[in-house]
Amino acid sequence: MEAAAxxxxxxxxxxxxxxxxxxxxxxxxxxxxxxxxxxxDDKSKSSEEDCGDRETPVAKAQVVGWxxxxxxxxxxxxxxxxxGEAEGAGLYVKVSMDGAPYLRKIDLKVYKGYKELREALDxxxxxxxxxxxxxxxxxxxxxxxxxxxxxxxxxxxxxxxxPWDMFISSCKRLRIMKGSEARGLESRH
Amino acid sequence: xxxxxxxxxxxxxxxxxxxxxxxxxxxxxxxxxxxxxxxRQNVFVGNCYAIRPERVMARFPRMKSLSxxxxxxxxxxxxxxxxxxGYALPWIEAxxxxxxxxxxxxxxxxxxTDDGLELLARSFPNFKSLVLVSCDGFxxxxxxxxxxxxxxxxxxxxxxxxxxxxGRQWLNCFPDSCTSLISLNxxxxxxxxxxxSLERLVARSxxxxxxxxxxxxxxxxxxxxxxxxxxxxxxxxxxxxxxxxAEAYHRLMNSFPKCKSLRSLSGFWDASPRCLKALYPxxxxxxxxxLSYAPAIxxxxxxxxxxxxxxxxxxxxxxxxxxxGLAVVASTCxxxxxxxxxxxxxxxxxxxxxxxxxxxxxxxGCPKLNSVLYFCYQMTNSALIAVAKNCPHFIRxxxxxxxxxxxxxxxxxxLDEGFGAIVRSCKNLRRLSLSxxxxxxxxxxxxxHAKCLEMLSIAFAGxxxxxxxxVLDGCKNLRKLEIRDxxxxxxxxxxxxxxxxxxxxxxxxxxxxxxGGCKALAAKMPRLxxxxxxxxxxxxxxxxxxxxxxxxxxxxxYRSVAGPRNDAPEFVWTL
Lengths: 189, 575
Description:
Largest sheet of chain A: 5 strands, mixed
Domain COI1 F-box (chain B): 3-42
Strand content of chain A: 5-15%
Oligomer: heterodimer
Pathway (chain B): Protein modification; protein ubiquitination
Helix content of chain B: 25-40%
Keywords (chain B): Auxin signaling pathway, Nucleus, Ubl conjugation pathway
Largest interface: A-B, 41 and 56 residues
GO molecular function (chain B): auxin binding
Domain Transport inhibitor response (chain B): 61-107
Shape of chain A: elongated
Structural class of chain B: alpha/beta
């Protein structure tokens, strides 16, 4: 029963980050209880919560017309957010390499294509030039490492399959895999 | 007064500035009514459905300037369905038939069409000024008609409209003979314009004082335009970003010093911190600065700019200015009257940049502050009490705490006492927007103290009907009341039905009002239009099935002498 109850709670739509017990917020739905201060429960609940919790973007968007910002302004920002990513502002993504203690960050906008990216990462991590290699564009150099990236959907993909522009617009982070995992990927590439 | 000839009475009425005063004197006697109506030139209609256009034209045949408002305010936040109404065409047609001397038209939240704009352009030979605010339904074709046919046009001011882009030609339609422009604002247009045409238009408009460009205008073009119009007073930049190594950047740095008349700046889409440096030479004279469309400017760069703006009276910024930046505003901008702080991160990923501290700082440092719009993630009662004490002269106080129903984080109490302090202290408060956790108590305070209040916006607040009743009872000057997501029901709605005839309108959405309550209201008050807005697909069938106890999603109640409107869409039901 407990398991079922917790499952229901997990799937329940709430205004709160997943995994937190956000207090019941009055949503746009009518009829939900609004007597907040009277009910001692809500008050004590909210005092326990970390009031710094932020609602997820999805949850916030569920309340129609809130926050009261004109559509004109909202639209202007969403355009700018996209534009900023695609143009002037730079497109910084984290790069992790298996075995390396620190992550790096690179600006994908700076590179013109996969070859340059690979060269930059190679220089940064000194990974691809290990062993006997010939530097072919994005190809299998017989090294122990493979470039992978996490795309917008959260999937891990091998770098190099899609056109460069598509790659930079969907790449959220990079991971340089090593060892047997890498060899398996590279040989299929 | 009957001993005075009409010309004298008319001359006396000339001294009456406001519509309300003129409305009042026209009720004194028939003679005064006649004199007043024949001499009134500026006509203001706050609700386009309160009266038929023909009656307005008939009453004021010498009308020169007409201002009409359409949709309710909450339409700005997508709470009013797209084709609810608010059509401008009947007004333009009626004016075209009866008031050919019309010179100015100002429309807000209305649906304007290209046909309407063309009719407007062709019907009024002396037409001088068109101002459209938050309108939609038209395209650049309509603008082309205005440009083509309005000889002697002085002002074309498009503020935050949704305009369909049918190409860039419209600007070319201003004939070479058009040299009369004083104000041109096309900032809301999405498409490009022919920049050569724009430069030539600017060059042949010696009276041009206000120019607001759209985002498609690059810095390169801006430089050329500023070179041709150094006498501008009010400038809206286009896209204010350019690579600092480019020549255009260096030209930009030198463009502004020549603009000695510049007092007001806005635009700044995509603005980069480096480009903002171009403004340093003109900062000290600025009275109006709108940086609220520049999310890429971090607080420190805003501070570098604002610390020179000693004469600033009106400042619109994003919350990236931070409390630190607002402290700089407080210590620098001693002439500040209006402050608006907008959220830069609308979907709340948690960038808490301004808090109650920023607001308190500005209230403390800026003695002339009288109008505030403030978006933040938290507010405390003690902060509001301090603000109230510092600024007893508020006319407008609009606070939006982004988390609905959020209490004071220090005490976990509702914000009743804080807002109570505001209404107690600010005796001239005309407009108030509430947010945060609020009980009926805050409405008791508002009813008791907010005697000048004209517009009140409430969301996610209150416990019972008593809250709304306190407001309706106490706020004698209330004109507009808009409520969403509050537990107010029929008891509150029906407590004082006559009150609504003293107001322009009432909006209630996602409250506890039922169909039966609405029917009762409509039955008791024939001169109110009680509109029910129901967007569910099966509204037509459900109309019969709707029982009186069913709650209604949205109601819009307004006084009207025009009766139920004949242009209501299916989902609007006037009882």
